Amino acid sequence: MEHFSFSWTIALVSLFQMHGSSSVTQVLVQRGKDVLLNVTETVVLQEDDDLIWRFNKTSNLVRFSPGGKPTIFTNYKGRAEVFEQNHSVQLKNLQAADSGVYDARVVGDKDRPVAEYNVTVQDPVSEVELNVTEGGGASGSPDSCIVNATCRTADSEISSTFRCVQQTCSQDGGEKSKVTNSGSSLRIYRLNATIICNHSNQVSRTKDMREIQDFCPRNSGSEQSSSSIALGIGISFAFIILQAS
Questions:
Q1: Is 141 within the bounds of a domain?
Q2: Does residue 17 fall inside a structural domain?
Q3: How far is the C-alpha of 212 from the C-alpha of 210, rounded, in Å?
Q4: Predicted confidence (pLDDT) per residue in 69-102, tens digit
Q5: Parallel, antiparallel, or unpaired for β 88-91 and 80-83?
Q6: What are phi and psi of 90, to 5 degrees?
Q7: Do 182 and 117 belong to one domain?
Q8: What is the CA radius of gyration of the chain?
C-alpha cells in the first residue's frame, strides 16, 4: 500500500478567488501543516501607521510598526513566524480551531484592508485497502478472466469488476467512484495492467494497487503455452533437418 500526503512545508493546497468578493482568498490546509499569509499589495508604513494581522476580526496575531520589530501577540507566540520585508505571516501546525478569516489592515489616519484569507483546515484522508479476487472465466471463453475488486476506507467502500481477455482488460461493471460519508472521494480504476484504489480530498490522498496478472494466471498461461508449442515445433523442425542432412 502506498500513502501520499501533501506534506509540503507551506501547505497552500487550494488557492482561488471567491465569487462576488475579489478581496477574499480561499485557502485549504491539511491539519498539522503550515500556511503562509501574504499581503496582497506593496505596503509602505508611514510614521503613524501600523499593519495588524487579525483572526476573525477579534484576535490580533501580529503588529508591524515602522522602524520597530514586529510584535507577535501572546496567543500566537511560538506558532507564528513573521517576515518584515513584506509583512507576511506564516502560521504553523494548524488545527481545526484555526479555521476562519485572517485579515491584514493598515491602521493610521485612514484604515485600509490589504489582505483577507478564509482558511479551512481539513483532516487528511484515512488509509485505503484494495481487495482483489479472481471471479473465474467467462462461459465459453477459456482465455478470459473476471476479477472482482473492492476498495475500502474507514467509513465507505466501492466494488467493481474487471474482465480480461488475452491480456486485454477493461472495467466491466460495478461502481467507479463515490463520495464517502466524510466527504472525501473514493475511486477505483485500471491503469494498464494495474487496478488502483484512490482515496482523496482537497489536501491529501492515499492509494492501494494490485497487478491484474497476479489474479489472472490463465491469461499469462495461454501466452506461455503458445510460446512453448511454437518452441517445440521449432526444435522438432530443426531436428528433422539435421537428420535429413
A1: yes
A2: yes
A3: 6
A4: 999 999 999 999 999 999 999 999 999 999 999 9
A5: antiparallel
A6: -110, 120
A7: no
A8: 30
Distance between CA atoms of residues 229 and 214, nearest Å: 23
Question: 210 is in which domain, residue-wise?
Answer: 129-219
Q: What is the pTM of this model?
A: 0.70
Query: Does some domain include residue 236?
Result: no
Reported as a single tens digit per residue, the pLDDT across 1-18 is: 554 444 433 344 444 333
Question: Do 169 and 212 lie in a common domain?
Answer: yes
Residue 174, beta-bridge partner list: 160
* C-alpha grid cell, residue 167: 491480456
Query: Grid coordinates representing 128?
Result: 485505503
Per residue, the 3-state secondary structure of the chain, as one string, reads CEEEECCCCECCCEEEEECCEEEEEEEEEECCCEEEECCCCCCCCCCCCEEEEEECCCEEEEEECCCCCCEECHHHCCCEEEECCCCEEEECCCCHHHCEEEEEEEECCCCEEEEEEEEEEECCCCCCEEEEEEEECCCCCCCEEEEEEEEECCCCEEEEEEEEECCEEEEEEECCEEECCCCCEEEEEEECCEEEEEEECCCEEEEEEEEHHHCCHHHHHHHHHHHHHHHHHHHHHHHHHHHHC
Using one digit for the tens of pLDDT, what is the confidence trace for 209-229?
Answer: 999 888 886 554 333 333 343
Dist CA 102 CA 98 (whole Å):
10
Q: What is the mean pLDDT of the chain?
A: 82
Distant-in-sequence, close-in-space partners of 118: CB < 8 Å, separation ≥ 6: 18, 24, 25, 26, 27, 100, 101
Give phi and psi for 222, each to the nearest 5: -65, -40
pLDDT, tens digit (0-9, with 9 covering 90-100), for 138-180:
555 667 889 999 999 988 999 999 998 877 888 888 899 999 8
